[in-house]
Design goal:
This protein has 15 helices and no strands. By secondary structure, it is mainly α.
């Protein structure tokens, strides 16, 4: 008699947990919507802050269910792959070569900043590399566990950079005063409406492609032994389909995209503790200095490219600034900047940074271990 009761109790407990987390997600999604006009990436930042508050006060003691985190990694990989847009690259072929070179230099700058964080901020190499890498902040946070990094510190460094860039960009653009231009279409287009689940008008077809791409990408990532296969595998499959143009309109959008970012932000916030917050205060000066240094170096690179290609400085600045791609594209659109150029360079950097971060972490960690003399 006890076994059936235990089974019923277990099923009831799981049902209660599912309902509880559904309610938590609904509340955090609504809070993100309220913050939409005022904050950058509100569906990540607000859930992160709410999760942080709940964890520090003891209101919520559990992390988000593992299956929810796994699904968010897979969907994020699919979304990132769709940012690689060849038609937009073709429109700006004359300026893309020097700006692609800037992507490589930016990667080197991020590595130098990560090295400084290890030395000055007492942060491990994996966490410093993911925290300082410019591009794909959500991907960096979501893949932290798989790559042996501290997701809480990664989120802190990534969103410190994002907040500084988004807050300063409109002011700097007004100061730079670029010549207004007719912007093109972004790489992704619109989400299609708040109640849509994928970008594009054919919701049924897009969801069907997404249902195939997601598990196929995970399988491919595992077979190829890619780092963070749940993200990298779907990203590769999604990028291949996007470049080929065989199956447009399957990227997570609308409600699904909101739930994706909300899950990532909430999970990171729930990992914090009072001890972690004390550590964040210690690394803040180093993180702030490194972030400002990377931003200033990217601005100098943008000025150089502007002078060499005779492209308005405002356009090259938006194309190279180390901020979140969604926030940068929104700013570029409101400023009537060259959207094909900006979206192409930003999406190329996002793809390169996300794909190179895992092997870079492995190489730097291995180098640090082999560089320690044996006694």
């Amino acid at each position: 008699m006890n076994a059936p009761r235990a089974g019923i109790g277990g099923v009831t407990g799981r049902a209660v947990r599912i309902v509880t987390w559904a309610a938590v997600l609904a509340i955090t999604v609504a809070a993100g919507e309220l913050g939409e006009p005022a904050l950058p990436s509100p569906h990540i930042l607000i859930p992160l802050l709410l999760g942080l508050t709940a964890a520090l006060t003891g209101l919520v003691r559990d992390r988000a269910p593992a299956v929810l985190n796994r699904a968010s990694q897979v969907l994020l990989g699919v979304l990132m792959g769709t940012y690689l847009d060849l038609p937009s690259l073709g429109q700006v072929a004359g300026s893309i070569a020097p700006l692609a070179a800037v992507t490589v230099v930016t990667l080197l700058l991020c590595q130098a900043a990560a090295f400084a964080m290890v030395r000055l901020g007492a942060v491990d190499r994996a966490t410093a590399t993911l925290g300082m890498i410019a591009g794909g902040s959500a991907a960096a946070v979501a893949s932290a566990d798989d790559l042996g990094a501290d997701g809480r510190l990664v989120a802190f460094m990534q969103y410190l950079r994002l907040g500084l860039v988004v807050a300063s960009t409109p002011v700097l653009l007004n100061w730079i005063s670029p010549r207004p231009q007719q912007g093109g279409t972004g790489a992704q287009g619109g989400d299609g409406g708040p109640w849509h689940l994928v970008c594009g008008h054919d919701q049924a077809g897009g969801l069907l492609v997404l249902a195939v791409v997601a598990p196929l990408g995970v399988l491919l990532g595992s077979r190829l032994r890619l780092p963070s296969p749940a993200t990298m595998g779907p990203m590769l499959v999604s990028a291949a389909l996007t470049v080929s143009g065989l199956a447009p309109g399957f990227a997570p959008g609308g409600t699904l995209r909101t739930l994706l970012f909300t899950t990532i932000g909430l999970d990171v916030g729930l990992r914090f503790s009072r001890r972690t917050v004390r550590h964040l205060r210690r690394i803040l000066p180093a993180a702030l200095a490194c972030t400002l240094a990377v931003g200033a170096a990217c601005a100098a690179l943008a000025w150089t490219v502007s002078a060499l290609t005779h492209t308005p400085f405002g356009d090259t600045y938006l194309a190279t600034t180390p901020g979140g791609i969604n926030a940068v594209l929104a700013t570029a659109s409101s400023a009537h900047a060259n959207l094909p150029l900006i979206s192409s360079v930003q999406s190329l950097r996002l793809f390169v940074m996300a794909f190179l971060a895992p092997p870079l972490i492995r190489l730097t960690v291995r180098a640090s271990r082999t560089g320690v003399p044996r006694r």
